[in-house]
Amino acid sequence: MRIGGFIGSAALVLALGATSPAPAGALPASAVRPAAMVSTVSVPKVGAKTAYVVDSAGTVHFGKRQTSRVPVASLVKVMTAYVVLREAQLTDTIEITATDVRHATSNGATTAALKKGERLTVRDLLYGLMLPSGADAANALARRYGPGTTAFVAKMNAQAKRLGLQNTRYTNPDGLPTPSKGGYSTAVDQVKLAETALGDTTFRTVVGSAVHRVAKSAVHRAHTWRNTNKLLQQADGVLGVKTGYTDAAGFCLLFAGERSGREVVGVLLGDQDARRFTTAEQLLDYAGEQIAGG
Q1: I need a labelling partner for 200 at 20 to 30 A (CA). Which of 19, 83, 162, 289 fits?
Q2: Which of 30, 39, 56, 133 is an active site residue?
Q3: DSSP letter assigned to residue 127
Q4: Does the active-site annotation cover 260?
Q5: In the chain, what is the straight-line distance between the N-terminal and C-terminal CA atoms, in Å?
């Protein structure tokens, strides 16, 4: 990923001119363009604690404390899916254990409503992991492809290092608060991971699905999983990616969409529930206007 260079606050004011000032800590795309090419579109107001938006040409459209290390809740599951897609065959079958179910229910986590004894394919479990954000699916996948959670988390951290996510550390495959608040990451690292993961066609299909239905069979119940990412229904051209929430992380949203012929990827960490979707749509449209304008 090619990231445009950052400049000081004084240069930022000159680049933006007299039109709408950027929020405190923000780095809009106009900061890396000649003043003559700056759009008059207002920079969206971003209430999230940290945020970052970049397009596929490497242009940074927004930044707010984007290198701060913070917990990212269920955005952790993006790396879980990424590791599984490199370890597993989509047709592999995993039997759900009582431990998988108990892991989610005892921690008050979101689940894919899996039951002990069910056998589901990796492909279906990836939907259960990413759409309803099932901690039961996360545990089942980590247990199988670590094998065991400890070994799986080591693989997650090894992948983070390989991808250059220097400010990311995982402590579990689901982002739950224990241990150590699920680890930490930054807005920059989360966007970089999403850009990479979206290069996998299976991942892209899964996170871009509003709903996934699994018909009842001899080895599992029927399941209907709906995507918690409301942005898919709220805005055009949205590709995914993942929602998350814990008390420590606040409401989080990793998002991607197509705007003005480019792929735009962004993240909001430490936001409010409904506001994150509205803000993400505004940031996508703002990036699109900036791209179209020059």
Answers
A1: 289
A2: 133
A3: H
A4: no
A5: 20
